[in-house]
């Protein structure tokens, strides 16, 4: 399995995170403020330049008021059948 931050599966996950932020009606700068992070932190994980660990992911979903399990399920559904070479 390829371990690049730029992998297709991670791109799908990042796109769903962007969707969750937009659904929450937040701009990157607003999310960054809630996380006590610079806006570049949000930009980097959204564009796939930086991976998130599970604690960061949970913190972000909490700041968005989203359900982390639902986003994981949505990611799994989007990737169903995807196999990386």
Automatic annotation (TrEMBL):
Membrane-spanning residues: none
HTH cro/C1-type domain mapped to chain residues: 17-71
Superkingdom field: Bacteria
InterPro entries per UniProt: Cro/C1-type_HTH, Lambda_DNA-bd_dom_sf
SUPFAM superfamilies: lambda repressor-like DNA-binding domains
GO molecular function annotations of the record: DNA binding
Protein name listed in UniProt: Transcriptional regulator with XRE-family HTH domain
């Amino acid at each position: 399995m390829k371990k690049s931050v730029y992998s297709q599966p991670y791109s799908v996950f990042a796109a769903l995170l962007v969707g969750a932020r937009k659904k929450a009606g937040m701009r990157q700068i607003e999310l960054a403020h809630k996380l006590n992070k610079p806006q570049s932190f949000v930009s980097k994980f959204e564009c796939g330049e930086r991976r998130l660990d599970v604690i960061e992911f949970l913190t972000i979903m909490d700041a968005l008021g989203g359900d982390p399990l639902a986003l994981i399920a949505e990611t799994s559904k989007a990737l169903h059948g995807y196999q990386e070479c």
